[in-house]
Each structure stands twice: as structure tokens, then as C-alpha cells.
Write a structure and sequence with these properties.
Blueprint lengths: L9 H15 L3 H6 L2 H8 L1 H18 L1 H4 L40 H37 L1 H15 L3 H16 L5 H31 L3 H8 L4 H9 L4 H24 L11 H9 L8 H27 L6
Helix pairs in contact: 4-6, 4-14, 6-7, 6-9, 6-12, 6-13, 6-14, 7-9, 8-9, 9-12, 10-11, 12-13, 12-14, 13-14
Organism: Salinarimonas ramus
Pfam family, one: OppC_N
Main location: membrane
Length: 328
């Protein structure tokens, strides 16, 4: 005699419903596109233009080897007979030098593309170093308090009395004195990153300290202490993720400031050498020929630097407003 199959148990039905509910949940990409931040981004035409320009600069720097007609860092590809050629739309211009050439025969478009790579690399590494120092000291000062808080904040107050460029020049001068006056390109890049990192850590430390002093009095921190978690684990695993919003805003704006600082140091002769120029070095080189009629040598790197910094600043302003719950 045939026995009827047993009916599904309630536990089986519950598991099936849970799996179906999970399958019906939108993907991470869909949730991101439907978020309030993306809605704010789509409403701001200026922010969209700034994002497109920033992305274009980043892609130009990343794929400079493929886009640029020459490698301006390779002396074998340079021809002094092609020096100081005007842009292509001038009657004296010639292909493939779209934006003209400098005194060494370097194609200005290629030099800008490769210079962008160096400026962005120094900016990102400098911001990463500054954020690492500032976040660590801010977490310790805000969570531990007492002597640690006093020492860190007094050091920050003293550094705030000096402009960031002076701190960067001081670090750059001390490093070059310790390592010798003549540095190669790699060592110079490291010195620039250190100079920028030690110039901008104060903003991160003060912001993180203030946020940590609010967060450490909340229930989840008390619960973490109750189960016996050590202070470093509580700071890194529980407190830090809740204070990262303001840090992201500062990092975005500081990226533009770091690029400007690197350009200023290079313009003053304390940055990248002429054999491996950044945007600041290109501007310094072009400034020597500005009054002799070769305006394009300084104009195009200056325009690229100004547009890049403006676009990043606009993105930073939008991110600050988008992450501010009072403006939603």
C-alpha cells in the first residue's frame, strides 16, 4: 500500500521563506544607486561635472603610457630641434605636439599627463600618511584622555600656529640635510610625501578626537568594555567605523590641498626635479619663459592644476553636505 509523502515541516517552510526573502533583497549596487547620497549627487549638475573632470584627470594619469605621444622622462625620445614649438593651432605648430613643446623638446600634453601621475601619487600618499597619523593620535587622545589628550592637543595647537607650507618646507629641509643635498627622484618623492603628511595630520586628529569623545560614552562602547575587550580593539573595531564620515570629507578636501602643496614646493625648487617633473615643476620651468613669448609652457600645466584642484574641492564640498544629516 502506497504511503502518502509527508507534508513539509514548519521548519522547512520557514527556511524556504527566508531564502526567498534573501533572494528578493536588492543587490548592493542597486541599494547604492537608490541611496540618498546618489540622489543628492544626481541633483547637483556642478558635482556631476566635477566628478567627470576628476575621473578624466585620473584616467589620463593612469593611462599616460597609452595616451601620451611620448615619454617625457625618456631623454632618448626628446629632440632639441623640436623645442619651444607653439600649440598645434598656431601657424608654427606641428603634429604630434598638440599643446606645443618646452625648452627640452618635451610634448606639453605628454608632460602634463605624466606630471599628473606624480602629483596625484604624492597627493594620495601624503593624505594617506596624514590620515594615518591623525586618526591614530585622535583615537588615543579622545578615548584615553588625560595626559595623552593634553600632549597630543598641545602639539596640534603649536603646529596650527604655522602655515602648512612652512611645516612642509621645514620637513623637506631637515630631510634633505640629513640625506644630503642631492637626492634622486625616488627619495625626493618620499621626502615630499613625508612633508605633506606631517603638515596635515592635525585636522584629522582634532576631528577624530571630538567624535571619539562623543562615541565613547555610548552604550555599545560600555558593552564592549563589559565583555572585557581591550582598549585598542574597542577603538579600532567599534569606535573608528563610527567616526569615518568626517574623515572622508577631510581626506577629499586635503587631497586638493596636498596637490597644491606639492606644486608649491616644486615651484619653489624643493620638489620633483626637472628630469621627472610634476605639475608644479612644469609651472616653475614655464615661468622662466613666460615673458619671452612661450606662454604655453606655463599656461597649460597651470590650467590643468587649477581645474583638477577645483574639481576635487567641489567633490569635497558635495561629500560634506551629503554626509551631514542636518542638511538631508
Amino acid at each position: 500500500m502506497h504511503n502518502p509523502s509527508p507534508s513539509p515541516t514548519p521548519a522547512t517552510d520557514l527556511e524556504t521563506e527566508e531564502k526567498a526573502a534573501i533572494d528578493r533583497q536588492p543587490s548592493l549596487l542597486v541599494r547604492a544607486l537608490d541611496s540618498d547620497m546618489m540622489a543628492s549627487f544626481r541633483r547637483s549638475k556642478m558635482t556631476i561635472v566635477a566628478a567627470i573632470l576628476t575621473l578624466a584627470f585620473f584616467l589620463l594619469a593612469i593611462f599616460a603610457d597609452l595616451v601620451a605621444p611620448q615619454n617625457p622622462f625618456d631623454p632618448a625620445q626628446l629632440d632639441l630641434f623640436d623645442s619651444r614649438l607653439p600649440p598645434i593651432w598656431d601657424e608654427m605648430g606641428m603634429l604630434p605636439y598638440l599643446l606645443g613643446t618646452d625648452e627640452q623638446g618635451r610634448d606639453m600634453f605628454s608632460a602634463i599627463a605624466y606630471g599628473l601621475r606624480i602629483s596625484l601619487l604624492v597627493g594620495f600618499l601624503g593624505v594617506f600618511l596624514a590620515a594615518g597619523i591623525g586618526i591614530t593620535l585622535g583615537l588615543m587622545a579622545g578615548y584615553l584622555g588625560g595626559v595623552v589628550d593634553t600632549v597630543v592637543m598641545r602639539i596640534a595647537d603649536v603646529q596650527l600656529t604655522f602655515p602648512a607650507i612652512l611645516i612642509a618646507l621645514l620637513v623637506d629641509g631637515v630631510a634633505k640635510s640629513a640625506l644630503g643635498g642631492q637626492l634622486d627622484e625616488g627619495t625626493t618623492l618620499v621626502v615630499l610625501v613625508l612633508a605633506i603628511g606631517f603638515s596635515f595630520w592635525v585636522q584629522y586628529a582634532r576631528t577624530v578626537r571630538g567624535s571619539v569623545m562623543v562615541e565613547k560614552n555610548k552604550d555599545y562602547v560600555a558593552a564592549a568594555k563589559l565583555i572585557g575587550l581591550p582598549a585598542p580593539v574597542i577603538m579600532a573595531r567599534h569606535v573608528l567605523p563610527n567616526v569615518m564620515g568626517p574623515v572622508l570629507v577631510i581626506a577629499t578636501i586635503n587631497l586638493a590641498l596636498a596637490i597644491i602643496t606639492e606644486a608649491t614646493l616644486s615651484f619653489l625648487g624643493s620638489g620633483m626635479p626637472e628630469t621627472m617633473p610634476s605639475l608644479g615643476t612644469l609651472i616653475r620651468i614655464g615661468n622662466n619663459y613666460l615673458f619671452s613669448g612661450e606662454w604655453w609652457i606655463v599656461a597649460f600645466p597651470g590650467i590643468a592644476l587649477a581645474v583638477l584642484v577645483l574639481a576635487i574641492n567641489l567633490l569635497g564640498d558635495w561629500l560634506r553636505d551629503a554626509l551631514n544629516p542636518k542638511l538631508r
